[in-house]
Amino acid sequence: MRTGDEQAALLAGYGRWLNSLNGPVQVVVSTQRVDLSSHAQRINDRADLIAGPALADLARAYAAFLTDLAEKHDPLWRTVTVAVTADADNTEVLRRAEQTATALTALGANAVVLDGARAAAVLTTAVDPYIPTDGTWPRSRPAEAISGGQS
Questions:
Q1: pTM for this one?
Q2: What is the pLDDT of residue 17?
């Protein structure tokens, strides 16, 4: 919901970032449906626990709003993941990632540099659009051995 001038400024900034790249970059855009129904049900179930009747009614109204939104629209959650690489050591990759995060933050994006485990979790979630998963749980990195628990 930006004006034409704001959109042009964002596109110009994005173009400057693209033109500043001197190595490979991968941009992954993933979209997942947002499950508002279960969130609305949780709110509605807990509304009875709220001491103030007016606040409880407000919680129920909010739950009804979320249910209506889920039924009449298709709410989506989009994530853009930018992966950078470098031929040199980890210092070079970290430098490129920090430069990218700084450039995208200047455009108004919420950009952070992820450590290896978090990056693996986010990329796994980004390429699995059919099963909503939580990208915060730990996953094995590609070079790590996976072993079962002791029985």
A1: 0.56
A2: 87
